[in-house]
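Customer escalation, tier 2.

The customer says the design service returned an amino acid string that "doesn't look like it belongs to this structure." They asked us to rerun it and document both sides in this ticket. The original structure tokens are below, unchanged.
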């Protein structure tokens, strides 16, 4: 069985992972019993293999995170993996048409969303030149604009 090793530089929540440094290895032995979700392999010990944290296994047509590498006897290593479903099924995920309940850019006003609104604007503060403590009575604060523009001098 063949395995392709990579350095994964992306967060686990990213669908299209940034992969560096491919290294291919042939003659890998699948440990029985095993699964397509958490496969374990025995391979010949190879210098520099510890720099990799991600693999692609053509036999399963899936990408995996390397969860553990164990030196067995100085000549062989056991590699434990866990499937990355986002990268493995990225084409199917991207092809899906969805009506999303929440989105940071657009929203559908016909879908109920009872969560609190979270502002994405940066808020600015400005000190008044005169303290409010020297005044008596009521204060009315009026704001104008959408808050997206910075104050002068900041």
């Amino acid at each position: 069985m063949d395995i392709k090793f990579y350095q994964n530089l992306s967060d686990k929540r990213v669908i299209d992972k940034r992969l560096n440094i491919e290294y291919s290895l042939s003659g890998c032995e699948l440990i029985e019993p095993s699964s397509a979700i958490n496969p374990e392999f025995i391979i010949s010990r190879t210098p520099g293999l510890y720099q990799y944290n991600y693999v692609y296994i053509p036999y399963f047509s899936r990408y995996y995170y390397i969860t553990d590498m164990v030196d067995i006897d100085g000549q062989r290593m056991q590699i434990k993996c866990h499937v990355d479903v986002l990268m493995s099924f990225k084409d199917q995920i991207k092809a899906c048409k969805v009506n999303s309940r929440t989105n940071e850019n657009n929203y559908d006003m016909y879908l109920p969303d009872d969560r609190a609104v979270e502002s994405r604007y940066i808020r600015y503060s400005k000190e008044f030149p005169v303290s409010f403590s020297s005044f008596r009575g009521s204060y009315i604060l009026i704001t104008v604009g959408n808050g997206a523009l910075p104050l002068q001098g900041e």
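Tier 2 assessment: The sequence is consistent with the input. The chain is about 5% helix and 25% strand. The longest helix spans residues 90-95. Sent an explanation to the customer and offered a walkthrough call.
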